[in-house]
Fold this protein.
Amino acid sequence: MILKGMFAPIPTPFTPEGEIAFDALEGNIRHWKQTPLDGLVIAGSNGEWPLLSFSERVELFKACADLSEGRFTLIAGTHCPSTSETAELSVAASEAGCHAVLVLPPHYYKGQNSPEAVMKYFTTVADASFVPVVLYNMPANTGWNLDWKLVSKLSTHRNITGIKDSSGDIVQISMICKNAAEDFSVFAGSGSFLLPSLAVGCSGATMGVANIFPEACRAIFDAFAEGKMDMARRLQLALIDINQAVTKRFGVPGLKAAMDHAGLYGGPPRPPLEPVVEKVRNEIIAIHDEFKEYYEEVSS
Amino acid sequence: MILKGMFAPIPTPFTPEGEIAFDALEGNIRHWKQTPLDGLVIAGSNGEWPLLSFSERVELFKACADLSEGRFTLIAGTHCPSTSETAELSVAASEAGCHAVLVLPPHYYKGQNSPEAVMKYFTTVADASFVPVVLYNMPANTGWNLDWKLVSKLSTHRNITGIKDSSGDIVQISMICKNAAEDFSVFAGSGSFLLPSLAVGCSGATMGVANIFPEACRAIFDAFAEGKMDMARRLQLALIDINQAVTKRFGVPGLKAAMDHAGLYGGPPRPPLEPVVEKVRNEIIAIHDEFKEYYEEVSS
Amino acid sequence: MILKGMFAPIPTPFTPEGEIAFDALEGNIRHWKQTPLDGLVIAGSNGEWPLLSFSERVELFKACADLSEGRFTLIAGTHCPSTSETAELSVAASEAGCHAVLVLPPHYYKGQNSPEAVMKYFTTVADASFVPVVLYNMPANTGWNLDWKLVSKLSTHRNITGIKDSSGDIVQISMICKNAAEDFSVFAGSGSFLLPSLAVGCSGATMGVANIFPEACRAIFDAFAEGKMDMARRLQLALIDINQAVTKRFGVPGLKAAMDHAGLYGGPPRPPLEPVVEKVRNEIIAIHDEFKEYYEEVSS
Amino acid sequence: MILKGMFAPIPTPFTPEGEIAFDALEGNIRHWKQTPLDGLVIAGSNGEWPLLSFSERVELFKACADLSEGRFTLIAGTHCPSTSETAELSVAASEAGCHAVLVLPPHYYKGQNSPEAVMKYFTTVADASFVPVVLYNMPANTGWNLDWKLVSKLSTHRNITGIKDSSGDIVQISMICKNAAEDFSVFAGSGSFLLPSLAVGCSGATMGVANIFPEACRAIFDAFAEGKMDMARRLQLALIDINQAVTKRFGVPGLKAAMDHAGLYGGPPRPPLEPVVEKVRNEIIAIHDEFKEYYEEVSS
């Protein structure tokens, strides 16, 4: 399995009462089907995985698989703190119809994260899973970096197929591209560094902003593929503000606010995440509209 | 409720098959009853809380309450990533017979940890809980520090009774002692800085090493209380090596190895935690025996 | 040489034109002679050493030695980025009449700070110096921590006599107290953690606040020595606000503002350091006066 | 003044006795004149600026200007801890014949680095200097990051012409490219992320490895300019190992060892920097030769 293209790390929609809003999910997916998105990441960091129960995650995997009707490559976020639960949820994800699973390194007991312990965690999960494992490096949330040496070793496992690296460390991403096994897919984990990641060899990206502006994101891929580096650069630089607003700066609540504004269902996050305050909502709207206007001008 | 004295953050014993070993737990608690321990912390970091299911934690709270027969103050680790689950588990802990609950700040989405969001998390949990909440600052695991200003604000909530600060930042601990509400209990979160914490006003401590050497730990409390500062200092300096070995250096697997050696039930941790390798086990045994010998000499 | 007691890390006074204000220095030292201070640290971090030329530092050492008339133990800050210059300035410091030299680890090329390289730096300087070397750990400024293992090794050098540890890591300070050579002096590098440092075995401290409130600082030493732990604790907790204001929070400009208010000569710092703005000056004055009032009440 | 192209941050050659080896400098510069290098950075981090005296730096600037005979754009590293000394050395650099000066943010008193203080430092220096100022962000050495917002503000100063950003934070570099004043030049501060930096809009780079492999570095620039992204990527990935070896991993001593091997004069660094040990020297030689072989194959 080779991962390629543009994936949206979709948020999990909740009703005002805090239940998963499956109707809203259906609406969102119906919309995304008409965009150039290649795949969806379900119950990743943007999907509030730590705030979902095991059974909610399985339901979500099923719902997304049913609603996608084969249109998307589906990557299910199946990381759990314990090895056995991650393995179990990975099996459930494949039974639900997902095509790959996204797994973080262990991180609460990070002081005990020897290379051997981390290798064993991923190897056990990959051995148990019926679908390929995608490694997920997200030090801003986990407080622990999965380095390129370890990734390169893991890349030789027959059922570990790629990595989503959200570290933003472009030298590390380069070293993975250089040293990982052939056919190992390297994905940029953020739209804020898509173009430089493509330049060093990434085959795709998961990008918060792809939930809202998939066409614009696709335009960067296309411009790069066609050698229009100047256009690619201008789009990339323009994209950073809105991408940072819906990821690093304002997090999942920021992404949901932007989706509400863009005509998708964002809705409330689950506590302890709190909806953005009015002032932030207005800032996000302004950043959203500025980018939208810019993109329409450029692409017309 | 005022927390005072010496608490052991007990490990959760597992059978070789990975189930909770209630027999072993009974044996350990029977032993601890004959020591000067004042209380137990159940399903804290040493208790591998992230690797336990919700229902396992409830079972564990019940078992400890039953086995303690009123001998110990029981603090139940009830932190969950979602606010509602933490509240629910806190209620279950009180129903199980525990006297207080230990709650970490939210930490996966640490980028969204505004003072307001963190206040709301703890306030919601404290409002819902039937027993007092003890704050738990553990930046080495969470990657996020709960600072003294926030703690001082939270300390005025009628159902937030204290903090276990494992940061090791002695100025921060001092500032909490100075600025928190009266009757707010400040606990050192490690035996490696017990004496300096007592010196600046802490009323007690939870200490990994108290699982194995409660008498020696008690001797530091006593020496301090009696103004025997020289004896207190010598014991404290001697204690650091063994305490670091069963906490920061080798983690829960190190603590379990030391307990196995000391005649208690340590047993295996749950993956992704791995048992210590032979070389480390031998180092832990050597450090254990060196301290034991030292303490016997000093106390005779 | 055993270092003991309370040292003030004195600021270097400048005229409004930016020259060293030797008259002001004389006035300050005349004042300090009438206080319980044991020693002065000259051209340390508070003395703006990086902003002074080699020859200015030598002049300053001489002036302080002359003005002290044997009243103080004088520690000269002689760290320079290059080994040979540090050695040379250390020799000049002894010729100027100082009793010891204070030396930081190399830190610009911190990526090359192998234990061997750092050992060699300090050993070369200590071999060359006619007076004992005091190690100086100041990670907040240098970005590099001198750990207890390295300190313990260095402590066996016949001409390395002690350490001023400003890290605030009380476990590290404890480990130095435990593992360093006999007669090696361990100094707390800040008044914010004086009492806990004494509790684990430090023999003294250099404290920014000792420039302004030497009697109050001395009172903590005395209370500790006399076993009046409750009094020691209350003074320590009260001292932190003013000490942080003249060190970590507002730096040398804050200390100089407080000295101006207290009737000593503070004056302007050298650029790039800038005098505190009016709002900060007022905050410092308020914190100063609050402590002064508290101390007068307690000590009367 | 617009900075463009490839600059070598040249090491300062020393004789075995520790004096500046002007003969060796002449030999090196004679060699570099026959390469595609566009400019030299003198007395930067690779030039061991903290280990040189003020007058040595001036001599070095003069020697490089004389030896270059107009062949290179010359950027003089003139940062000093004090504002006035930096201004003075910047004036001396222009009188010596250099075309621009490279200036770090203040960093010893990093706790006092308010945006205002940093702005004032750079503004004062830029006002005083007769040649344009190039900002220099080097957090690995300084422990302090000069962020894109501050850089964007500084970029409007008429005599601040560009930045060399060695942070490796590609999103930050992108934001500078997007937000800085028109005609402000953004340089990648390392060969390890040259291509991604060009992709987001940098106009050039200073690269440790350009001291040894200027043709290969130039080949990346050329491939990028000609839209040969695949070739550019392959060269970039191959270049990282040797560039890391002579920068981040083994520092100035590593660069000097590689130069010795490559037929240039490397020689010893100044203490506290120590020459690499034999094992490291052999590793560097192996990495050097591997890249050389690769490049000869690719370029033939």
Chain D touches chain A through 26 residues (CB under 8 Å). The two ends of chain D are 36 Å apart (CA to CA). The first helix of chain D runs from residue 22 to 33.
